[in-house]
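Q: What would this chain look like folded?
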Amino acid sequence: MRIIVSGGGTGGHIYPAMALIKRLKERDLIDDVLYVGTEKGLESKIVQNAGIDFKTIEIRGFKRKLTLENVKVVEMFLSSIRKSKKIIKEFQPDIVVGTGGYVSSAVVYAAHAMHIPTVIHEQNTIAGITNKFLAHFVDKIAIAFTEATDQFSEKRKIVFTGNPRAQEVVNIKKNDRLKEFDLDPDKDTVMIFGGSRGAKPINLATIKTMEKFVEADYQVLFVTGRVHYDNVVKLIDQKYLKSANISVLPYIDNMPEILPDIKLIVGRSGATSIAEITALGIPAIFIPSPYVTHDHQTKNAMSVSKVGAAEIITESQLTSESLFMEINNIMNNQELQEKMSAESKKIGVADASDRLIKVLTGLVNK
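A: My prediction, written as structure tokens:
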């Protein structure tokens, strides 16, 4: 199979695409792959570092207000379609997959216009503007949350596949990697993590909870995000930084590798995080970002909490007291942990990539 994949802007669009490509290679179903993104996007670094062929188009999103700038955006979109058609003609794909972000709109639309099979993958409960636009033209719409069904009028095109990132992490086993962070691999561990860039409200609440964490029966792995690390360390009393119960880090490379050793995750509720957490059945406390489009992180979190696999603390409710109370409630209740873990695994999709691949091969063979 020759495949073009396009998605960019955020890791939530890129990592599922990378997981799909990885699984296609594992199953020896791929003859050649090309990733189309933008030069300035996060995908440029991630995809090329993975050794995958990469080409770029220039495109950006519309402004919410009516401005002359939007005229330029329309011109850029039309130009990006023309360039996408040229890329497609040269590569000759059997199928084109879009995982979201403005860049995929031009690539997938161009493929549709050239009568090449197309699929989009929607990672969130609330569909992005690009996928809502493309849904009218593509052959199939793959979704990761059943709640996303109502976001599309073309119900006959919808296939529930889950998020490919889930299958990528599901077979990771327990290991002793916590030793790298001066923690005990045999002790129950909570990881507090606000995303790759960190989250200031989560960091501040955690800093104020350090005194209580020192006395807890469990240990805490606090990942601040690189941009916040120096300020966070300055605000924490040195005696807490020296505690055997606490480890403070800016970031963890290959984060999924450590997940099987974590008893509870506290953090944002992005689609990729939820895919990983539910695939492994890890209880969670979600603190959704209220700043994302259409508040989709809250909707994502609710889809997990409604089955009893997670608790939610809104950012407006977040304090050191509410944070410690929720963490303590779960970490000191083995029965609750086991119940949350079981419910989490029920909604996890351990074969998400294979489900999506079945959709792709079905279209190609047809």
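The longest strand covers residues 32-37.
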